[in-house]
Design brief:
The structure is a homodimer. The first copy, chain A, is α/β, with parallel strands linked by helices. Chain A has 2 domains: 7-165, 3-Layer(aba) Sandwich (Molybdenum Cofactor Biosythetic Enzyme, Chain A), CATH 3.40.980.10; 173-243, Ribosomal protein S10 (Alpha-Beta Plaits). Helix content of chain A is 39%, strand content 26%. Chain A contains 9 helices and 11 strands. Chain A has helices at 15-18, 26-37, 51-64, 82-90, 98-105, 115-119, 152-162, 184-197, 225-243; strands spanning 7-13, 40-47, 67-71, 94-96, 122-124, 128-130, 139-142, 145-148, 173-180, 202-210, 213-222. A 6-stranded mixed β-sheet of chain A has the order 2-1-3-8-7-6, with helices on both faces. Chain A has a 3-stranded antiparallel β-sheet with strand order 9-11-10. In chain A, helix 8 (184-197) packs antiparallel against helix 9. The longest helix of chain A has 19 residues, at 225-243.
C-alpha cells in the first residue's frame, strides 16, 4: 500500500434497490471510474429512503474515507430526501439555491417551476453544485461528500464533471493471469506463498462458472509496477508448472 | 409497517467488487428472493477482503437485523478469510469440521484434499452447514448469520437451501403504476398528498431514461392489501387526471 492512498465510499440511497425492483448499476460504474483514476473504493452501503439511516451512513462514511459519493434521492418527489439528510448530517441549513433555480429554469418555464420541482433546487448551505447536462437538476458537493443522481446516465455525467477536481493517489495497477480450468485448490498453496513473498501486492483468485465448468482467474494488484511485474511472473510460473 | 417485520442485511465481501473488476449480481438476486418471501432487506454493505472490516461489518449488521447474509470469501485461497472473520465476530473457535470434510470428499479424492482445500472445511464452532450441490464446499449458518459463496450459481443454490428455514413476516405487496412520459415534477405534489393519506403504504417514484426520454414509474408497497389497492387507485386517478 502506498502511503498516499486516497480512499472513497459509495452510499446508494433507495428502497427500490433493496426491494430488488431496480438492479443497481452505479456501484460498478463508480468502482471502475475510481480505480482508473487512482482512488481506492473501500466500502459501499445501500440504505433505504429513511432519514435516520441516511444521516447515520453519511456521517459514518464521510468520517472514514477521503471521499463519499452518494447516488439517488435527489428528484422532486416526497421520497427524495437525500439533500435534507446531507444538510442534517453536516448540521447546516438547506433552502432553494438561486444558482440551482437558474439551472432548473433552463429546462422548465417559470410557471412550471412548482413547489415539487423547486425541491430539486434545495441545496445545503455552503455546497457547490454539480451540473446535470441531461435534466438540469443539479447534484452538489459539500465537504468531502458528492451527492449525485440515481439515474445511471445522469450519475455518469455528474461523475465526469467532478472527476477532474478529485485528489488521486498512486494508481492501482493490475494484471490478470488466466488459470483456466486449473482448480483453485491446486494452486492455492503456491499462491499463498507468493502472496507472502510480495506484501505490497494484493493477490486474489476469482472463480467463475461457465458451461465448461469453473474458470479461474488470478488478479495481482499493486501501485508498484516493478513489484507487480515480479508477482505476475511468479504467478504465471506457478500456473504453468501446474498446467504443464 | 407491520409489527411482525422480519429484516435482513447483506454483506458482500470482496476486493474484486470494490475494484470494479467483477460486477456484483448477488445483491439483486438476494433482494428479489427476500422480498418474495416476506423479509425486508434493510441494508447492504460491500467491504474488502480485510479481517478488521469484515468482523466490524458482521457484528454491526447481525446486531441490527433479524438475519445477515454474507457472500464471498469462502474458497480455498489465502484471500478467502470470511469463515475466520465470522468465527472472530462470534468469539468462537474454528477448525476443520468433519461434516464439511466429508462433503469435500464427495468431489475430491482423499489424496487431493490438500491444506488449501481443507481450508474450505474450516467452520466456526457451533455452526450448521449449508450444502453446496455444485462444488460441494459448504457455506454455514451461525446465530443469525448465513455465510454463502460468491459465485452466483452457488450462492443461489445455498439461498434456496436456507430459504425454507427462515422466519418470514408479512409479505410486502407492490403495484406499479406506469406514468409514462408524464414528468415527475407534474405529479410530485399530488403524490406527496397521497403518501400522507396512506401512512401504511410506501410510495416511490422511479425515473428511467429511454431513447424517447424519461419514463417514470410509481411503485406503491404495503403489507396491507386493502390499503395498497386504495393507494394504487388514488395514484392511478392522479396520473390519469394529469395525462388526460
Amino acid at each position: 500500500m502506498s502511503t498516499d492512498t486516497v480512499t472513497a465510499a459509495i452510499l446508494v440511497i433507495g428502497d427500490e434497490i433493496l426491494s430488488g425492483r431496480t438492479k443497481d448499476r452505479n456501484i460498478g460504474t463508480i468502482a471502475d471510474y475510481l480505480t482508473a483514476i487512482g482512488i481506492a473504493l473501500r466500502e459501499v452501503r445501500i440504505v433505504p429512503d429513511e432519514a435516520e439511516a441516511i444521516v447515520a451512513a453519511v456521517n459514518a462514511l464521510r468520517a472514514s474515507h477521503t471521499y463519499l459519493f452518494t447516488t439517488g434521492g435527489i428528484g422532486p418527489t416526497h421520497d427524495d430526501i437525500t439533500a435534507d439528510c446531507v444538510a442534517a448530517a453536516f448540521g447546516v441549513g438547506i433552502d432553494v439555491d438561486p444558482r440551482a433555480r437558474a439551472m432548473l429554469l433552463e429546462r422548465h418555464k417559470p410557471e412550471d417551476l412548482n413547489a415539487a420541482r423547486l425541491r430539486m433546487a434545495r441545496i445545503p448551505e455552503g455546497a457547490d453544485l454539480i451540473p446535470n447536462p441531461i435534466s438540469k437538476a443539479p447534484g452538489f458537493h459539500i465537504g468531502n461528500v458528492f451527492v449525485m443522481a440515481g439515474v445511471p446516465a445522469i450519475m455518469q455525467a455528474m461523475l465526469d464533471a467532478v472527476g477532474p477536481s478529485l485528489a488521486t493517489g498512486a494508481r492501482m495497477l493490475s494484471e490478470t493471469i488466466e488459470a483456466g480450468g486449473l482448480p483453485e485448490g491446486a494452486y492455492a498453496g503456491g499462491l499463498a506463498e507468493i502472496a507472502k513473498d510480495f506484501p505490497g501486492v494484493s493477490i486474489g483468485s476469482y472463480p467463475s462458472m461457465t458451461e465448461a465448468g469453473f474458470r479461474n482467474r488470478i488478479v495481482v494488484r499493486s501501485t508498484d509496477a516493478a513489484a507487480l511485474a515480479e508477482a505476475q511472473g511468479a504467478v504465471q510460473a506457478l500456473v504453468a508448472g501446474l498446467t504443464g
